[in-house]
Structure formats: structure tokens, C-alpha cells
Write a structure and sequence with these properties.
With 123 residues, this protein is mainly α. The protein has 5 helices and no strands.
């Protein structure tokens, strides 16, 4: 039961990070339009809505997952940014970027599988 709950919390956290990853994509799409045009303003309104939603999701993540684990996992947004950049904007992925992505994923895997140490009372 606890293991499935932890898995659901971990999945929820990564969905929140996926939402967070969308805001720079929309910002990049907005640069295709003239500043303060209807499309530009509309896209930035969606950006603000995404950031608002992410702020709520982040608070919920912190209720379920320790801060150190959540912050370490947030680096996955760099990997998603690379993937979205490739798929949506035709940006290349260099060998250095792939090595960085492997290091990020390795770090997340190590931190996510590490057993939590029981906290001792300070008093």
C-alpha cells in the first residue's frame, strides 16, 4: 500500500514538472508574433495560467514528497526541455547534452531509490 502511494506521489510530482515545462515552450511560441499582438498576449496569458497551476501543484507535491527529493527531481525539466526543443523546434541534441541528460537521470534514480533515514529529535 505504501509503495503504491509513493509511486503515485512520484508520478504526480513528474506530472507537475511536465506542466512546469510547458511555460517556456509557450513563451518561445509567443516570440513568433509581434509584441502585444492578440496572439502574443493570449499565449502569455496561458503562460501565467500554467505558472499558477504549477504553483498549486508544487504545494501539493511538497505535502507528499520531501523537499530534497522534489528539488532533485525538478532537474528532469531540463531533459524534457531538450526533447520538446527537438520535437517542436527542430533544435539539435549534442553529445554533451546527452551526457548531461544521462547524469541528470542517474542522479534522480539514485536519489529516488535511496531509503529515507529516520529523523532524530533535536531536543
Amino acid at each position: 500500500m505504501k509503495k503504491s502511494r509513493n509511486l503515485l506521489s512520484f508520478l504526480f510530482m513528474h506530472i507537475a514538472f511536465l506542466v512546469y515545462t510547458l511555460y517556456p515552450l509557450l513563451g518561445k511560441f509567443a516570440t513568433r508574433y509581434e509584441m502585444l499582438s492578440f496572439q502574443f498576449v493570449a499565449l502569455y496569458c496561458v503562460v501565467f495560467a500554467i505558472l499558477f497551476l504549477y504553483a498549486i501543484l508544487w504545494q501539493q507535491v511538497l505535502k507528499r514528497i520531501p523537499l530534497t527529493t522534489a528539488i532533485a527531481n525538478k532537474s528532469i525539466t531540463i531533459v524534457w526541455g531538450m526533447i520538446f526543443g527537438l520535437l517542436l523546434f527542430g533544435e539539435g541534441i549534442s553529445l554533451k547534452m546527452l551526457i548531461g541528460a544521462v547524469l541528470i537521470l542517474s542522479g534522480i534514480l539514485i536519489l529516488s531509490t535511496e531509503k529515507e533515514k529516520p529523523q532524530e529529535d533535536a531536543a
